[in-house]
Design goal:
The chain has 346 residues and is an alpha/beta fold. Helices cover 30% and strands 21% of the residues. The structure holds iron/sulfur cluster.
Length: 346
């Protein structure tokens, strides 16, 4: 994970990710949702009453690595991580975690996996039960996983210490916590079962910049100490730029670009990535980017455009783009893009 001192108050230094085995491998993942019930589809004569929320997605996350998933609302990033967590079914494809296939497991067979893949909720103040104390919230995973025979008081104290909160907060309720404290409680809860992978959904949403930096520093420190891997789902590009080692950009359920974060930010290959970068508000006029931003709306999943699905919004569209769908291919070492005319070669 790269955590630099930048707009965020994040720890200085740059920890290179060493060559590590893949912890998570997703191959050809496809998630479909039914849009019409059986009878209505029959009456309407709908031959394929489904939408593809995730389509043909493959990626890997190494041990100790931070992988970012970025895209506008409806891009499929949340559905993709829900599939990894076993919360939605794959229509097709494979997911391996720590060397084992995890698709199509029964609930009972998935439970040991769920201990090792933890979800950090977007808004812990809303996701923590208002009627539960900090102690109850952070030890709840032990109850859910039939591990209540542990010394829960000792676990609670240790977890609070790991996230830098005083044990005096154990009896507090969520409304008695600041935004930063609630986020730390969310981290403590995610750590309870000592997972190998944490999936963080917008880990800094709603926080002041200084508190964002504190939370990201904490996650960085825990990663170094515990060897954690993170998948961070966000549309906050400044955050993902400073915390992720590698990044994938999603559009209409597909990856359109993937590669090392620094390289993508320095020279995006896909016009959609360029548009996302240009859409980031830049308060300092001297530093305003020359990228054009994004035009138009995201098309409906019910009515995917022919050819390149981004063509109606692309400034670089050519005739071929309207009829011929580009495939995600390696454009430069370690970099993949789905575009007939990628913007830069390295
Ligand atoms: Fe734009 Fe064509 Fe590339 Fe699609 S394939 S992103 S329309 S240049």
């Amino acid at each position: 994970m790269r955590w630099h001192q930048a707009t965020l108050l994040v720890a200085s230094g740059c920890a290179m990710v060493e060559a590590q085995a893949n912890l998570l491998e997703v191959e050809g993942a496809r998630v479909r949702f039914r849009t019409l019930g059986f009878l209505r589809a029959l009456i309407a004569g709908a031959k394929d009453p489904y939408i593809d929320a995730v389509l043909d997605v493959s990626f890997a996350v190494r041990a100790g690595e931070t992988f970012g998933l970025v895209g506008e609302s409806g891009s499929g990033k949340t559905t993709l991580v829900r599939a990894v967590l076993g919360l939605v079914d794959l229509w097709s494809g494979r997911i391996r975690f720590d060397g084992s296939e995890i698709v199509d497991r029964s609930d009972a067979a998935f439970k040991p996996i769920r201990r090792q893949i933890s979800l950090m909720f977007q808004d812990p103040q809303a996701s923590l039960s208002p009627r539960k104390t900090v102690r109850s919230s952070i030890t709840e995973p032990f109850i859910i996983h039939n591990m209540a025979d542990r010394d829960l008081e000792a676990e609670a104290r240790e977890l609070l210490g790991m996230v830098g909160l005083p044990v005096g907060l154990l009896d507090n309720y969520p409304h008695q916590l600041s935004g930063g404290q609630a986020r730390r409680v969310g981290v403590a809860r995610a750590l309870a079962l000592r997972p190998k992978l944490i999936i963080a959904d917008e880990p800094t949403a709603g926080l002041d910049v200084s508190v964002q930096g504190e939370v990201l520093n904490l996650m960085n420190e825990l990663q170094g100490r515990l060897g954690l891997s993170y998948v961070i789902v966000t549309h906050n590009l400044p955050v993902i730029r400073h915390v992720s080692d590698r990044l994938a950009i999603m559009y209409l359920g597909r990856f359109v670009e993937e590669g090392p974060t620094a390289a993508i930010f320095a020279r995006p290959l896909h016009p959609y990535t360029l548009g996302l970068l240009g859409a980031v508000p830049q308060p300092d006029p001297d530093k305003r980017r020359e990228e054009p931003g994004l035009m138009g709306e995201v098309p409906s999943l019910n009515n995917r455009p022919r050819g390149c699905e981004f063509h109606a919004r692309c400034l670089y569209v050519q005739e071929r783009c309207r009829v011929d769908a580009p495939v995600l291919t390696e454009v430069a070492p370690g970099r993949r893009a789905a575009c007939h005319f990628p913007l830069a070669g390295s």
